[in-house]
Description:
By secondary structure, the protein is of the alpha+beta class. The protein is 47% helix and 18% strand. It has three domains: 7-68, no CATH class; 91-189, Butyryl-CoA Dehydrogenase, subunit A, domain 2 (Beta Barrel), CATH 2.40.110.10; 193-337, Butyryl-CoA Dehydrogenase, subunit A, domain 3 (Up-down Bundle). The strands form two sheets. Strands 1, 2, 3, 4, 5, 6 and 7 form a seven-stranded mixed sheet that branches. A two-stranded antiparallel sheet has the order 8-9. The chain is globular, with a radius of gyration of 21 Å. It starts with 6 loop residues before the first helix and ends in a 12-residue tail after the last helix.
Amino acid sequence: MDLTLSPEQTDLGDAVARMLATATATPTDPWAGLAEMGLLGLDLPEEHGGAGGTFADVSVVARALGRAGARTPYVEGMVGGHLAPRLDGLVVLAHDEPGRRWTPGAGVRAEPDTDADGTTWRLTGTKEPVPHGGAADHLVVSATGPEGLALFVVDPSDAAVHTYASHDRSPTARIDLDRAPAALLAGPDQAAALLLEASVRAVTAYGAEALGAMEEALDRTVGYLRTRRQFGVPLASFQALTHRAADAYVALELARSTVLYGTACLTEGVVDLAVASRVKVQTGRAGRLIGQEAIQLHGGIGVTDEHGIGYFTARLEVIEHLWGDTGFHLQRLAAGLGDHGAVDLLP
Length: 347
């Protein structure tokens, strides 16, 4: 299993970084820049309008977006695009619900529309939070019908979409469905498997974005320690501070290895829930440590809204709670320990 990036993937990351730098310096929409570069359907088959790339390419883009602190629905669009590749525009999965802590089922109810031709369904319930749900052209909604969990396509204009800013100021939405018309996308025989794959892809892509954010946060912190002077010397000359930065670097490298392994698995077609949970645990732990240390080592300016380091910390916290937090995935991994045999260390 190859965990290294190809020269083409390195060039792709550099190109995205340059585009995002230009978008930051000028009033340019980074989402439009990604579209112009043909990256919105990067790993979709060409027959569905995609570029025919791999998940490793998606990971490279997500990492660059995380490093730039760009607020785009790239990961959400990648997940939705794989669920409904024949739909045009931004497709967003609406799965999370208030009061349901990352459970595989769905509280939204689906019932066939008796007044229609048999292909239309009606959905009732609430989905929240739905990252970038207000920008979606189509919503893929998980709902429970007469025969079990299924996936449906909903036009956002047929639902009440309430948008607001999340903790990191990125747009999210509450979707209220009141007998909203919907088309069946996947029945109970397919929905669970599709959602499992979507969760693995989402967790790994968010892990790549978190990796980019951690890299940028730590680079800025180390740069600050080298340039900020106290008592006539740089902060980096204080051993206690450099030890804290070193601990953050070790956590970053462990997270990097885990994200690269998860990316390689998906690139080779291996969809493993345990691998995704390991990605979530390592990026969650490392993100919390690096975010906290970045703010602490920046001193008083680290807690201000005007300083960029606060955004990366907030973004890492938001990512940690998407598709299950660190504790949730630790419990999932612990539940699978019985599948492994014990090693006898003594002869």
